[in-house]
Design brief:
By secondary structure, the chain is of the alpha+beta class. It has helices spanning 2-15, 87-92, 142-161, 171-189, and strands at 24-30, 35-37, 55-59, 64-69, 72-75, 83-84, 97-99, 108-117, 125-138. The chain is 31% helix and 28% strand.
Length: 192
């Protein structure tokens, strides 16, 4: 019985996804609108030298989409003229990525990293993870969206007022609750 329980817990870990403390923000933006993917490097690294310009990089899993070091910047293919992290905001700690004229192909998971020199004389940089943002792009017409929003808000009210409905905010909590239940059940099935 113990082996079956262990295999079940292992499957729960795999199915609930990553159990890291990494946070991911989920955003949905309509086609042709602008999106601001949030990022603040001061929450991660507050001791960056004041004379050093922050070096920020935004990537998807397949490519670098934007990079800024001082006035120098790189805009990835397909993002030219539509993407920026304003330099004045970056110096204050705000590394939010501004994406204009959003297209269907922009839907992806974006990650921001701060590139920090390892030592004053070193040419190599260390990449420090800051934020992960999953961007979804909605291309449905406005009139359909407003009707769906009304239905969704009614459905949310029904779910909130229904008894026995549990919403788990994260895979970590889901995993923890299910593990406790399984361990509790094992005590009754297979007592010591």
């Amino acid at each position: 019985m113990g082996i079956i329980l262990q295999e079940f817990i292992l499957m729960l870990v795999i199915s609930t996804g990553s159990l890291s403390a990494e946070s991911r923000i989920f955003m949905t933006v309509k086609v042709d609108r602008s999106a601001v993917l949030p990022c603040n490097w001061k929450t991660i690294l507050d001791n960056l030298a004041t004379d050093q310009s922050p070096h920020i990089e935004w990537r998807t899993f397949s490519e670098t989409v934007f990079e800024r070091l001082g006035e120098e910047q790189f805009q990835g293919e397909g993002y030219e003229g539509r993407i920026d992290v304003p330099e004045d905001e970056l110096k204050k700690g705000n590394c939010s990525l501004v994406l204009k004229d959003v297209k269907l192909g922009d839907a992806a998971v974006y990650e921001s990293h701060l590139l920090v020199k390892r030592t004053k004389r070193s040419l190599q940089s260390k990449r420090v993870f800051i934020q992960s943002v999953e961007l979804s792009v909605d291309d449905t017409p406005e009139e359909i969206n407003s009707a769906q929003d009304k239905l969704n808000s009614r459905a949310r009210l029904l779910l909130l007022h229904s008894s026995g409905v549990i919403h788990f905010p994260s895979p970590i909590i889901t995993f923890t609750i299910l593990t406790i239940i399984l361990l509790f059940m094992q005590c009754f099935i297979d007592p010591l």
